[in-house]
Write a structure and sequence with these properties.
It is built from six helices and two strands; from the N terminus they run ααββαααα. By secondary structure, it is mainly alpha-helical. The protein has a two-stranded antiparallel ribbon with strand order 1-2.
Length: 186
């Protein structure tokens, strides 16, 4: 029988039986089938080795199973065909299609979040530029007046104008500049 069948029949772990078989502690044989090569073990050899090492052993005989090459799909009993309450059976194609759609929905949600972030940044920049434009329009013009007629006389030295304090930008413009300069430092 196969290693798994021997494990089920004796109660000894599959990995333990596999190690015994590899080390030659139990009689084994390799059998070719359509699925590949399978290691077969003697049930009595596994039970004898387990008793020798003091492992608890199940003594009942296993159910006979058909050979691996002639294995047919298991017959589903009527009780197993009905799903538990609150569940339902879904064809695998429909399940795969739904998972694909969920993946697309997740990707669309990520793209929407990125677009909202870009829109928020653009709105902040637009607000800053509007404030800056309003400040520039409110500031007195520093350009010379070119519409006044040119006089040949030398003007009398006038008293210098008092220096005006630079207008402080609004707080949001300050925050915007700090955010931009902080991003550049990173």
């Amino acid at each position: 029988m196969t290693l798994r069948e021997a494990s089920d029949a004796t109660g000894v772990q599959l990995s333990t039986i596999r190690n015994w078989a590899r080390k030659g502690r139990v009689p084994t044989a390799l059998e070719e089938s359509g699925d590949g090569t399978h290691r077969m073990v003697s049930l009595e050899g596994v039970r004898a080795r387990a008793r020798q090492l003091g492992h608890p052993v199940i003594e009942s005989r296993p159910k006979p199973t058909p050979p691996l090459a002639a294995a047919s799909p298991p017959i589903v009993e009527e009780e197993q065909a009905t799903p538990p309450p609150g569940t339902m059976l879904v064809p695998i194609e429909a399940w795969d299609k739904m998972l694909h759609q969920l993946g697309n929905l997740h990707e669309a949600g990520q793209q929407l979040a990125e677009a909202r972030e870009r829109a928020a940044r653009a709105e902040t920049e637009a607000t800053f530029l509007r404030e800056r434009l309003a400040e520039m329009r409110a500031a007195p013009s520093q350009e010379p007046d070119t519409t006044a007629p040119v006089q040949d006389e030398v003007p009398v030295a006038a008293e210098p104008e008092p220096a005006t304090a630079a207008k402080m930008p609004r707080f949001s413009a300050y925050l915007w500049r700090m955010a931009v300069s902080g991003r550049n430092r990173k």
